[in-house]
Amino acid sequence: MNETASATFRDPGLPLSERVADLLARLTLAEKVALLHQHQAPVPRLGVGGFRTGTEALHGVAGLGPATVFPQAVGLGSTWDPDLVRRIGTAVGTEVRALHHKDPDRTGLNVWAPVVNPLRDPRWGRNEEGYAEDPRLTGELATAYASGLRGDHPRYLRTAPTLKHFLGYNNETDRSRTSSNLPPRVLHEYEAPAFRAPLAAGAAVAVMASYNLVNGRPAHLSPLISGLLRGWAGDDVMVVGDAHAVTNIAADQGYLPDHPAGFGAALRAGIDCFTEDDADPGPTVAHLTEALRRGLITESEVDAAARHILAVRFRLGEFDPVGANPYAETTAEQVNCAAHQDLARRAARACTVLLRNVGDLLPLTAPRSLAVIGPLADTVFTDWYSGTLPYAVSVRAGLADRLGAPAVRYAEGVDRILLRTPAGVVCGGGGPDGGALHVTDPPDGTSAHFDVLDFGAGTRTLRAVANGRYVRAADDGTLINDRPGPGEWVVRETFAMLGGGDDDGDGDGVCVRHIATGRYVTVGYDGVLRADAPTPAQATAFDVEMVDDGTAAAVALARDADAAVVVLGNHPMVNGRETEDRADLALPGGQEALLRAVHAANPATVLVLTSSYPYAIGWAADHVPAVLWTAHGGQESGAALADVLLGRTPDGTPAEPGGRLPQTWYRDAADLPDLLDYDIVGSEATYLYFRGEPLFPFGHGLGYARFEHRDLRLSAPETDATGRVEISVDVRNVGGRAGTEVVQFYTRQRRSRARQPLRVLRGFRRVRLEPGEQATVTWPLHAADLAFFDVTRNRPVVETARHTVMAGRSCTDITATAVLLVRGEQIPDWDAYAAPLPAASRDDEYGTTLVDAGPVEGDAVAATRAGAWLGFDRVDFGAGTVRVRCRASAPAGGARLEIRLDEPLGGPLVATLDVPATGHPHRWAEVIAAATGASGVHDLYLRFDASDARVAEIAFRPGSAG
């Protein structure tokens, strides 16, 4: 340490680049390689300590003991409030610093948050982690949260925020093997902007690559990391690999032959820090060292990665005197402090969305009695990335605190059962450690009673009444009632209860399948229950005997109450979570049956949905007078919901549901394309392109006040492509109480060469008004923001066109419009001769998918069925063409390609190309054929006769056959 105390890299007065370069020059190659793992080794001879990336901080500090738990990220998205989200980011960043100060070895300062993947499909298992289906809203909220995490000091970072997950990551099932196919427009208009915004603003300093493949190439090898992502930031960006993802390149993905090749390729592509083998850097160091020995990577490439990492460490203040860094002395008193608790309650109120309120049932006015019902009414669930709750306020507790315990009557609404066999009754153990489930006769009191909770898709949990613990299957299959709830990476607490006795599941009694292992429950010779049978035919058949009918008890309670509050939703660790997508959008059948019964007993029923994602609640939307949705809201969720349901806080301040939907709520999963279809333009997905009638649209949310929008006007009726126009609309509170309106501004381009969205969010303003008060709300519309990606010239273009400018309460509830003429460019027809036509830039397709043209760079199109085709709109062949050249591949055997005009099947045939067997997808043949009959402007189609053929580009030679 003494030898380096005066070294250049320790001088805070020097430029960052000089300091990083000096430290880098002092390190040996082996020491630099050791920096490239998540757990970076110290360098004692230079006084450089160890460093670890990856503290989880998605909506609070996770995995490090009690800390403030804020609403899930999708809940923060529903606030539509960047200022609030920034304050939450500041609070979380402060708690990270405080815990780091307390134990720097346990709490690292590189935080893995926020998640900026747009919520393209609500079936995504990690829906709860994103902000919105719109890239602009996502980018703005991510910038706000990351800004809070990083702090506002010009030199030092409070923490180092990492955006997750680059790129095209929106499905879980088989995520490491599936490819997200991103045409150029989807890439540049939908997927990329959410990442670009926080990087361009300097709010985020790192990015994590995603598990999936993109256009057939592992995302960790994407040329977009260096070719696109790093160009968005003014400073060095550290790119980290996701856990075990680089290992997947040669393992699950089988993309490269071995780990040195995979690790070397990832480094060359731009991965700086490898998250592999948990805390053991040994394998990563060995793979990279071998890649160096083989010449697969160079020392300069190691230096580049180490420089990105060290730049972040310097900005965190690691090599500066403690007194110079304003964040260094943040102490543990900040963790879950009173100010953060208050902020958590404000956030939980702000993320509550009122979906329906017929007859102004809400807010509840001085109820003498409330029936609070449902499996989520008296509990607060956490998700995989939640912190440890320091305390939890449920809906029942929040209302009881406000109205008094006697006024709040509670029923969970779940059935209590016995499981019988001819040998006796199934019993569990008492106390927190429970015991092995076993058959005995007679049973010992309530030890034989189990509550059955329905979480949908046939998934149920069993909770032992004897100790309130959930049943799980241990590693050896033994069923034990010892868990506080479903959890851990592999959820062992979920079961399916099927008709037993045979493979068809329709025999006598019920057989029980353990979902995680797929094994069926048997009663052993010793009377102990184990999940160890491979088929239902080998399972024990149980008779189910009802002890208490949960629905009947709930109905009896609701019938005599002033109103019923039914709290339903999901468990974040069950059905729809990391590694598991949802199969559909349905509310669990048992929960809907409970809701229907309660509503029949008491029409004054409020449905409170607490969930990580949208549900298709068509019956409730038609029949239940008041419906609220909130994401899982953290420690203050019940207190906040009590504020909203009653319309006021404990001190009498008016409270309202402040949220707006950050994604479309569909009526049925049938309204959605295939989960793996990432082409939102072609599949007409998300609010941008969806032509159906949603259950609730993007941006929807009611309040307790009522507003009118009037007189939308523009500061100018037209502008050029570099101009700016102010949008203004008058907003008046025409209700009887103060409230907040979220005024949303959208545009729609009326005519274009390319298919345009039906509407695009351009901005939004929150405005709070007293009854009768009016305000003018303005938003600056930059013409450059109206650009879309022109595939004919491979760049963004502002096209000359008229745009409908809209103000509204949601994307479909439009209240006022105006027309703006933008004078930009005229997009030309495809020029058949200026350059080859890239297959991936096609305007239309049938039966094709995007694939990688090579392991390092380039995209191509592959047929997925015989008869597939791709199309280019309006190709100008001039006076005529005499030759066509196609870069094509047919890995398994030869293929024939047809070039046709105007129609893909019956249009005039221009050329036929026979592609030889190439033997490998990345081995390409230049196929040339004579062309006839192509002159002037036509739509061009290339048709495949084989399902394994691939095309990278098509080129034409001008000339006249005569």
UniProtKB/TrEMBL annotation:
The keyword Hydrolase applies. InterPro entries: BXL, CBM6, Cellulose-bd_IV, Fn3-like, Galactose-bd-like_sf, GH, Glyco_hydro_3_C, Glyco_hydro_3_C_sf. GO terms for biological process: arabinan catabolic process; xylan catabolic process. Residues 835-957 form the CBM6 domain. Keywords: Hydrolase, Signal. Pfam families: CBM_6, Fn3-like, Glyco_hydro_3, Glyco_hydro_3_C. One of its GO terms (molecular function) is alpha-L-arabinofuranosidase activity. Belongs to the glycosyl hydrolase 3 family. PANTHER family: BETA-D-XYLOSIDASE 5-RELATED, SUGAR HYDROLASE-RELATED. This is Beta-glucosidase. It comes from Mangrovihabitans endophyticus. The lineage of its organism: Bacteria, Bacillati, Actinomycetota, Actinomycetes, Micromonosporales.
